[in-house]
Amino acid sequence: MNVSLRQLRVFQAVAAQASFTRAGDQIGLTQPAVSRCVTELEQQLGLKLLDRTTREVVLTEAGRSLAARLERVLDELDTMLLDVRGLATQRQGRVRVASSPTLSANLLPACIARCRLEHPGLELVLLDRIQHDALASVLAGEVDFGVVIDPVQSADLQAETILTEPFCLVCPADHLLARRRSVRWTALAGEPLVLLDHASGSRRLIDEALRAHGVQAPVAQEVGHPTTIFRMLDAGLGISVVPLLALPPGGLPGLVARPLLPRVERRVVLVRRRHRALAPVAQLAWDLVRRVAGERAGD
């Protein structure tokens, strides 16, 4: 059955006016066009809806049954379409975002605060998860989008880089490498390393950089969060390589951070399911996270 909305609206007008001519005047169609729409509707339904004479148009029993239900259905449809159209400018609602730990701690708080300031009706809900689980949440549709580190390319994800940042050395202030203004990757050879574990999106990049520069160094400890790394360095367990964003704004008492050369960067990436358009309110949140990250890059 291929009944069109236009046919239904024309029939509704004819039923209300009991006249093809008056119905045409009401909806802006000629009398032949009105008659043709009603005939097409009857053919699709396989029912006669109107008895036509030279002087009047009378609803059949099937016509009366359809007309009685049609007004409510079309009114509900109009309301629904207005509601959907209103989503284009919607700035209220809840947006769920999955983020890997270093970003949850060092980028997303500023995004949530900015969201509350600029869009009070938009609630940004953070799911703080290891990278693998954050990506799984995006793919499963559990969240609207994710903020992650250099994900492996996937045909199911659409990604947008919003920030690049370098890795740096962190070590105790009395370590020999702390005396240098910058440190070459090769200088890490033989040093005990305290690193983020492989659940982190950064660990793969750190391992690749160490291999690329021929660095052989024992991994003393693998942990899940930079804060744990810093406490271990305080205890004299080694040195570390961390992304710049992991460093607290207030600095690290007793520890120093030095640029690593050659510069190796990680990408902070927004990800969402491919071929799935974001709802307007989620797009608003996506744009806000991108903007805050861009401001961070410009600092």
Automatic annotation (TrEMBL):
Record-given protein name: Transcriptional regulator
Record domain HTH lysR-type: where: 1-60
Keyword set includes DNA-binding: yes
Signal sequence residues: none
InterPro entries named in the record: HTH-type_LysR_regulators, LysR_HTH_N, LysR_subst-bd, WH-like_DNA-bd_sf, WH_DNA-bd_sf
Domain of life: Bacteria
Transcription keyword on record: yes
Family per record: Belongs to the LysR transcriptional regulatory family.
Keyword entries, A-Z: DNA-binding, Transcription, Transcription regulation
PANTHER family: HTH-TYPE TRANSCRIPTIONAL REGULATOR YBHD, LYSR FAMILY TRANSCRIPTIONAL REGULATOR
